[in-house]
Amino acid sequence: MIGFLRKIFLPHPEPMNMILIHKKNILNNLEVLQSLQPKSEIFPVLKSNAYGHGLKQITKIIKKLDVPYLVVDSFPEYMIVKKYTKQNILLLWETLPDNYRYFDFKRTTFCISNMEALQEIWKLRKWVRIHLFLNTGMNREWIDEDNLDKFIEVLKQYPNIELEWVMSHLHSADNMYSNNIEQQIDLFKKLYYKIVNAGYTPIWRHIWNSAGLMKIKDDFFNAYRPGLAMYGYNPLNLSDENFNLWKKLKPALSILSTVISKHNLKYWDGVSYGHTYRSMDSEVVANIPFGYAEGLARSVSGKILFKIWKKYFKQIWTICMNLSSFLIDKSVNLYDEVEIISENQTSKNTVKNLVDQNGMLIYEFLVWLDKGIRREVV
């Protein structure tokens, strides 16, 4: 009876677009990362809607993992992750002062990069853990070498604030020609020991991102924050000497849509905005309800492939806000499932192939995927 009522009052209709998150691939990637740095702790990065994979879905996949922290970007992301796991959470960026009172301080740590945030936390009069974000060359924000002494001086006045971690971020680790990594490491250590000499004993020391994970061989660092690699993508250039170390990574995301219409074309008919293609014969065009509003950039128009029943069909004409068109043959029927993106790296319709055709970054494509598309773990 309950199930019957749920179907009536809480319907779960089948969507025309779907993003599938392959659980085994996420877990595989975490195993690969842990095998590469077995002496260090992993802090999975779930920021930006888990790189487009779905914050709720990824949290559920890894909620039983024994990791010190899950990393989120903002207060809204914190609220979602907090709901689906009991793991500790690291807030990577700042939030508005009024929001601090809504956090569970027993399981939350804040990355601090400015004096104002430190002072707002002190006003809470609660025991709060923080991670100092040191500037070693990114120069976007964070604590500089010339103001660290002042920062430590103020921190000593706040006994309710525990300095748990010191961190930074590599700015060019994915550049195979960069010689700045060692400079950043040297500066990080210099600032770290200044903090230690001031009487603090931070537990965690971290500067690694996915790209830098295999470029740094230094036991001084005991934690790392993998983002892109955790989701199965190699952050390095093909020519990088470390590129092949990531061969075992498996993309965790695939995207499905549905043929919603077919239209017969006559000779020289054009389709979509600008009529960028002209039919050379009697042809049939199919449409799916997935366009640039859903995350398929208009700039890839005419450059990508869709897959139906193991056959590839080229997307042609201008991608619209909510529609993409492609030529089909007689094997394609209305409401057939269309694979826009495959998680299989040997397929022709992978994320990597799409971004290579467009000259964009994998990061961009993933985080631009519409948050409203249903995501399911498989």
Topology:
Elements: H1 2-9, E1 18-21, H2 23-36, E2 41-42, H3 47-51, H4 55-62, E3 70-72, H5 75-84, E4 89-91, E5 108-112, H6 115-122, E6 128-133, H7 148-155, E7 161-167, H8 181-197, E8 204-206, E9 223-224, E10 253-258, E11 261-265, E12 283-288, E13 305-308, E14 311-314, E15 324-328, E16 337-341, H9 351-358, H10 362-367, E17 374-377
Parallel strand pairs: 1-17, 2-9, 3-4, 4-5, 5-6, 6-7, 7-8
Antiparallel strand pairs: 1-10, 10-16, 11-12, 12-15, 13-14
Helix pairs in contact: 4-5
What does this structure look like?
Helix content is 24%, strand content 20%. The protein has two domains: 23-237, Alanine racemase (TIM Barrel, Alpha-Beta Barrel), CATH 3.20.20.10; 253-377, Lyase, Ornithine Decarboxylase, Chain A, domain 1 (Beta Barrel). The two termini are 28 Å apart. Strands 3-4-5-6-7-8 form a six-stranded parallel β-sheet. Strands 16-10-1-17 form a four-stranded mixed β-sheet. The chain contains ten helices and 17 strands. The model has no long low-confidence stretch (mean pLDDT 89). It is of the alpha/beta class.
